[in-house]
Fold this sequence. Notes:
With 115 residues, the protein is α/β, with parallel strands linked by helices. The chain has a single domain, classed as 2,3-Dihydroxybiphenyl 1,2-Dioxygenase, domain 1. The chain is 20% helix and 40% strand. The chain has two helices and eight strands; from the N terminus they run E-H-E-E-E-E-H-E-E-E. The strands form two sheets. A four-stranded mixed beta sheet has the order 1-4-3-2, with helices on one face. Strands 5-8-7-6 form a four-stranded mixed beta sheet, covered by helices on one side. A hairpin with a 3-residue loop joins strand 2 and strand 3. The protein is globular, with a radius of gyration of 14 Å.
Amino acid sequence: MPGIVFFATENHDAVVDFYTTVVGAETWLEQPDCTILKHDNLLFGFCARDHTDDGGTVTFVYDARDAVDAMHERVGDAAREEPHLNEKYDIYQFFADDPDGRAVEFQVFEDGTDL
Length: 115
């Protein structure tokens, strides 16, 4: 069964724009105060609220390093760091911040693990 992860946000439009325009997610479903996005097999939603859930990390997994590098270029100043090898987890990755300050990770498994 598929699932959806929801986050409350005080910046609904800016957050949805970041994930659709910059990251490449698609709007899967619009509800009265929530937008559910889809990126490959990940469903995640943002609901307009008077507070922001900025804990946790939204991770996007790619199949090659060049795709991670391309995302680094796309997120621009939102990136916290340069893409790099994380030997502990055997991934190539970098972190960025979305408009809410939520951590966003872009990675590829170096061992070829495929989702």
